[in-house]
Each structure stands twice: as structure tokens, then as C-alpha cells.
User: Which sequence fits this backbone?
């Protein structure tokens, strides 16, 4: 039935001369969500963002939605912590869930966190590299800030007792991200005054050294452990593993 509806909509749109691009986008989005109600929730940002196909195609959705372990907390993150989870001593998988999907944006977090975080009453939620992939896609800064506001509000409403921790975008060798990350950091802090915001800059040299990075945008083990310690010191949350 859903496949039939998709064909019907795609055939119908070209004949609607009075429709505009935004209306077409809304119609296709509604159909997409109808087909993926078990994976995503509806969010306003989906009118402007394209959701990350890796979440479903890469098997992440199935993995996280089947994980019914009641962790102390979870981190919604992108490739930054998908890589960091492999570092020796980074975290304790018995107490903390790294809910990471390579390429995720703020809109992906808004759209999936209710379905992919299966812990019923987490003590905390950590969001890493907040706005990082949005910047790499060159999403306008105002849109990034708006989407962050939607995320913060949704998380507060769904998990009212969870502490909200946000890690700002770290230094990279990407010029556009470096030029805009401070503005994003300043704007998003206004949207969630109760959140704990972590500035990762003290974990990196200035200027940034190649030895601290795995590639243009991903940091190595030592900065990862340093950021983890900042979370402990500033937000009073431990994710296990090694603390120096």
C-alpha cells in the first residue's frame, strides 16, 4: 500500500501547476515519514535538511532500536565518536551508549533520538560536535541555530530529567568550519541556558597540529580522552574508561 502511495504521489506532482517547491517538499516528506514511522519522528527541520541515509542503510537504526540495555546515559554523535569509541579506554560500554551515525546533522538527531535511544530514563544525554556536519554541508548559520533550538526543546520535553550536555565543534583543518564554529557556539548556548556546554579547544594546540588529528576533521585518541575529562570536570558526568 505504501509503495502504491509513493507511485501515486510521484505521478501526481508534475500535473499540479499551482504547487510550489515547498509544498512539493512537504508532500514527499509526509510520504517518506509514513514509510519510516518506526525509524523517524517528524521534525520541522526536515523541510530544509535531507536526512542521513546511512542511519538506515548502514544498519544503525536496527542496531540501536534493538538495544534495550538501560544505560546510565547515551551520546548522540556522528563519526567523531564513532571513531573515538574504538580508542582504548575511551568509555565503558556497560554504562554508556555511543549512539553514533557517521554524517549525522542536528536534524538527524531531532528526527531519530526518541526512537534510537531506548534507555527509558537516562541520567544524561551528550551531543557531540554540535553543528559540525551542518557546517560541512554549509547549512546557513541561522538555520543551524534554529535546528539546535528544536533539538534542545524536543530533548527537554521527552527526557525532562536528563542532563543535556553539548560539545561544541572542535578545531579542524576545514577552513569554513573553523571560520563559523565560534558563531554557532555563541548562538546555540542562548537556546538552552540549562544545558552544559563544553568547549573542546583546550584539548588542541593553537595552531592545530597534524599529530592531533586522524584526517582533516577527526581527532585522535589524546584529544578524545581530554574532551571526555572536560565533560567530567565541567558537567560532572563520567562515561567510564580511563581518566588521567
Assistant:
Amino acid at each position: 500500500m505504501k509503495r502504491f502511495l509513493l507511485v501515486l504521489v510521484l505521478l501526481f506532482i508534475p500535473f499540479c501547476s499551482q504547487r510550489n517547491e515547498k509544498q512539493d517538499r512537504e508532500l514527499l516528506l509526509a510520504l517518506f515519514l509514513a514509510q519510516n514511522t518506526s525509524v523517524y519522528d517528524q521534525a520541522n527541520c526536515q523541510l530544509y535538511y535531507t536526512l542521513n541515509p546511512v542511519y538506515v542503510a548502514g544498519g544503525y537504526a536496527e542496531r540501536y532500536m534493538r538495544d534495550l540495555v538501560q544505560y546510565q546515559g547515551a551520546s548522540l554523535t556522528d563519526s567523531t565518536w564513532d571513531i573515538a569509541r574504538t580508542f582504548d579506554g575511551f568509555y565503558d560500554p556497560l554504562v554508556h551508549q555511543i549512539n553514533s551515525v557517521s554524517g549525522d546533522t542536528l536534524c538527524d538527531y531531532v528526527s531519530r533520538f526518541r526512537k534510537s535511544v531506548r534507555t527509558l530514563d537516562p541520567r544524561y544525554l551528550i551531543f557531540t560536535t554540535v553543528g559540525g556536519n551542518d557546517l560541512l554541508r554549509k547549512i546557513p548559520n541561522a538555520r543551524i541555530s534554529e535546528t539546535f533550538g528544536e533539538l534542545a526543546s524536543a530533548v527537554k520535553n521527552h527526557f525532562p530529567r536528563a542532563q543535556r550536555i553539548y560539545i561544541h565543534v572542535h578545531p579542524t583543518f576545514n577552513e569554513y568550519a573553523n571560520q563559523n564554529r565560534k558563531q554557532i557556539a555563541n548562538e546555540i548556548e542562548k537556546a538552552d541556558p540549562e544545558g552544559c556546554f563544553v568547549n573542546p579547544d583546550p584539548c588542541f594546540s593553537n595552531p592545530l597540529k597534524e599529530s592531533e588529528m586522524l584526517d582533516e576533521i577527526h581527532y585522535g585518541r589524546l584529544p578524545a580522552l581530554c574532551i571526555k575529562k572536560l565533560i567530567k570536570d565541567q558537567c560532572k558526568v563520567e562515561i567510564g574508561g580511563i581518566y588521567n
Q: What stands out?
A: The chain has one domain: 62-235. Residues 1-18 have pLDDT under 50 and may be disordered. Residues 83 and 218 are 8 Å apart (CA to CA). The chain has ten helices and five strands.
